[in-house]
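Field reference: sequence -> structure
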Amino acid sequence: MADPSHKKVILGLTGGIAAYKAAELTRQLTQGGIEVQVVMTESACGFITPATLQALSGKPVFTDMWDARVSDNMAHIELSRGKDAIVVAPATADFIAKLTHGLADDLLSTLCLARECPLLIAPAMNRQMWDNAATRRNIAQLEHDGVVVLGPASGDQACGEVGMGRMLEAVEIAEAVSAFLAPKFLSGKRVLITAGPTFEPIDAVRGITNRSSGKMGYAVARAAIEAGAKVTMVSGPVSLSSPVGAEITRVDTASQMFEAVRRNVARADIFIAVAAVADYRVDKPREHKIKKTDERQLQLKLVPNPDILGWVAARPRAPFCVGFAAESRNLDVYADEKRRRKKVQLMVANRAQEAIGADDNEVMLLDDAGTHRLERAPKEVVARQLIAHIAKLYGATRRKVKA
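Structure field:
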């Protein structure tokens, strides 16, 4: 999710079974640093309690147009002032119809009508309700009016049927909201990112790999998307959800990753090599499983893998290149040596024993201007700070080229 410093949203809940997802959505948004004010319709309270949302948001939940906690009894006006967006999730067919025709008969619908900020909705309804001509007209009108429609998705529905109308999952909505709110540092730029480990086969079942989880690379991809970039990812084997909006090529070996990078690098403005690529591979992997015996030792001949970052940086029209260095000691010395040797504009260094597999990270950024430290924080936060730094360096580099 984007760096949402001082971002504030109203999360509106209407009366659909998908309201249960609002608890996780609230948690996702608040953990990302977005201040959430929950407003619920009367029917939404039949599916999930205000107490649940209050506990997760840390703020009182509003349900009544005439709530006395707002001094002038104008909650329908005051609550939306100073907010960066209103997000209605779930948005039922009934509430979508209200929005389309400007009806304002409860607190949430009145807030949406009197708002001075963008409106995003996540539809949630039965497949036949979604396909109904009236709903399709209403959605088309809302989009024409500038309302951002998130989803829906196709899948199993509470009624037992299967089809379009299912609300997006909480993490998908949170990513979309965060991306919408994020500064567009890289608007229109094409970013190519490698992520995760590689797996170099020994035989049919064994291989050489490393403990990279891919979390940092995927966080960087999400941050770049939030910043407005068009992201292409080349990912080694990981167990992570794909960043919404990224074009992904999945690979296993370093050679496969290299080939995927070769196919995509010509259209990249920025190349970020986050992947933990194996330095060596087995010269001649066995087709079948090597059987264990007590009479002999197993010897493997290793040969170097392609230097993907070095190859990209050495291209005649190389993109802006960012490398990652995971070191167990002498972090600044080894990372800067790697930056100079590969001739890249930015090297991101972290301690391997602390970063690999963890959910947080502390990194050192090394460029021509010196060393910049990013304090330990969740990898999503570090990724946003990194993308902001990359955007700044990239802009300065391009200005020099034009000059």
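Note: Residues 379-402 form the longest helix (24 residues).
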